[in-house]
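Tokens in:
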């Protein structure tokens, strides 16, 4: 038995085999084998079917435009999909444990070489067609792989680190837990793990070596340990920890239906942070008061291309309708920094956290912003929806966004499409600039929501992604807490509410400080709602003070 020590970033425990995530399945890399033949065979069969369908449609379009001869090329390509030599070569390679991508590349090479060696110009042209078909299959295979990162059985997923776009595409039904060499508690991957209730440990370092692939392990998100080849004593500890957790859960379940109030009756509604419409069931299960933050960019991260207005509208409407009149705050696209998307073709930046991200990107791409705003306002007709703008640093940005909102509403009105013209527009306070401008921003915003993750990063000059900076990345730092006071005072002076949606909101020890500051709402991972409610109901506001701001 070996114990690896890291940092627990999402609570809970799990037992299962380690599975190392391979970021790239390029033909070259997969040449070393080690793939599951059944899985790869299925992927290739799906890609072949999809290619045949595409070619059929192309042949139809070409025939309509140019007659039978126009369709001939695509029909020939469709026949190549069934080429016996190519299919036999690919199947043999997959049976040996190679990836579908590698099998396609090798099969195309073999068949092209056969055709080229004949010396016939006609067959030489056929070799180009073979490559064309192979390229089509590769595209479809990479698309299928990108769509969902799946696993043969339930696993403890291991990786150097996972990007947000990878995390959102994991087949969650088969992830028992997540273990990473790098990573940090405030990275979006850790935040997602907490939202999904998946136990996770980060910062395990080089000891989490790929040679451990397939080994049995126990992971504890509470202690930050990964125990390899657990013995009976370790299994007993796991069972005890699961039993303890179950009994805590039972205690917290008794909080369902109770108010979010202190002992002396001061209300502090506890809402939830979500990343996709599927997370709404966890919100309802944990009796969240509403949704204080829907990180809409995960719709974009899960997609192969810009999600269209209708796709977004359905997602937002689904959430608004499921919450049945409870408030749903949807944040506009917050892409950039650690959340990169290939189809945005963003220029590489030296310091992406300080770069073209969030609202800056939306203002630079008005068409894309308009699509999202139209979808949001359309959904506003189906529930109690509010819109939140990320990374605001100046009043002019808020004004430009308001103008974009007005334009989207005017378009919908002209088209006779229903929307709620009183939909509230809020500002995320997550930069020191927004804190300093809070009095001016509060005059033009309908509400504030403090993003303590980024506010900590930008205040303390400390990369939230960076493993090993834990002693420095401290959201309880007085420099952060004092800014909460500046923002809260500005909001209340202007008569607008202020909530907290960063991870700090889930810290029960900070409840007295939040109450003393007059914070109006907290928004946390669904699994944190009931423990926080239990803690809140034991507090007396007379005992609350701002002493933490002075330390
Ligand atoms: C924050 O910065 O605190 C926040 C809520 O947004 P995100 O974590 O998505 O950047
Ligand atoms: Mg943020």
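Residues out:
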């Amino acid at each position: 038995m070996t114990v690896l020590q890291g940092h627990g970033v999402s609570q809970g425990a799990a037992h299962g085999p380690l599975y190392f995530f391979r970021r790239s399945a390029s033909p070259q890399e997969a040449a070393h084998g080690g793939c599951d033949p059944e899985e790869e065979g299925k992927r290739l069969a799906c890609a072949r079917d999809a290619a045949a369908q595409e070619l059929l449609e192309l042949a139809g379009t070409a025939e309509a435009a140019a007659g039978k001869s126009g369709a001939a090329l695509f029909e020939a390509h469709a026949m190549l999909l069934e080429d016996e030599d190519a299919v036999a070569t690919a199947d043999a390679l997959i049976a040996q444990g190679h990836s579908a991508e590698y099998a396609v590349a090798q099969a195309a090479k073999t068949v092209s070489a056969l055709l080229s060696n004949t010396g016939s110009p006609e067959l030489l042209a056929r070799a180009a067609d073979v490559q064309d078909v192979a390229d089509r299959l590769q595209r479809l295979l990479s698309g299928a792989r990108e769509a969902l990162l799946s696993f043969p059985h339930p696993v403890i997923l291991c990786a150097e680190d996972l990007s947000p776009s990878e995390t959102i595409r994991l087949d969650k039904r088969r992830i028992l837990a997540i273990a990473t060499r790098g990573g940090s508690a405030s990275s979006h991957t850790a935040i997602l793990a907490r939202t999904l209730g998946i136990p996770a440990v980060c910062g395990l370092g080089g000891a989490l070596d790929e040679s451990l692939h397939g080994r049995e392990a126990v992971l504890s998100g509470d202690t930050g340990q990964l125990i390899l080849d657990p013995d009976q004593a370790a299994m007993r500890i796991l069972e005890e920890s699961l039993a303890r957790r179950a009994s805590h859960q039972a205690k917290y379940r008794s909080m369902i239906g109770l108010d979010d109030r202190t002992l002396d009756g001061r209300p502090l509604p506890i809402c939830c942070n979500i990343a996709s419409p599927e997370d709404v069931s966890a919100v309802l299960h944990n009796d969240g008061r509403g949704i204080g933050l829907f990180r809409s960019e995960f719709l974009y991260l899960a997609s192969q291309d810009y999600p269209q207005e209708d796709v977004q509208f359905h997602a937002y409407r689904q959430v608004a309708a499921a919450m049945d009149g409870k408030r749903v705050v949807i944040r506009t696209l917050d892409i950039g920094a650690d959340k990169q998307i290939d189809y945005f073709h963003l220029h590489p930046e030296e310091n992406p956290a300080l770069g073209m991200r969030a609202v800056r990107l939306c203002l630079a791409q008005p068409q894309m912003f308009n699509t999202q705003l139209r979808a949001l306002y359309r959904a506003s007709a189906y529930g109690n929806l509010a819109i939140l703008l990320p990374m605001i640093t100046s009043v002019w940005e808020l004004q430009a966004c308001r103008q974009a909102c007005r334009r989207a509403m005017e378009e919908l009105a002209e088209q006779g499409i229903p929307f709620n013209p009183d939909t509230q527009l809020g500002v995320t306070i997550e930069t020191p600039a927004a804190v300093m401008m809070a009095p001016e921003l509060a005059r033009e915003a309908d509400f504030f929501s403090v993003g303590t993750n980024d506010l900590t990063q930008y205040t303390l000059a400390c990369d939230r992604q960076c493993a090993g900076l834990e002693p420095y990345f401290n959201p309880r730092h007085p420099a952060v807490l004092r800014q909460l006071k500046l923002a809260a005072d500005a909001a209340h002076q202007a008569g607008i509410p202020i909530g907290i949606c960063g991870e700090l909101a889930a810290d029960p020890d900070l409840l007295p400080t939040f109450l003393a500051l007059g914070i109006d709402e907290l928004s946390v991972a669904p699994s944190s709602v009931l423990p926080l409610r239990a803690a809140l109901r034991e507090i007396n506001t007379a005992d609350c003070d701002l002493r933490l701001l002075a330390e």
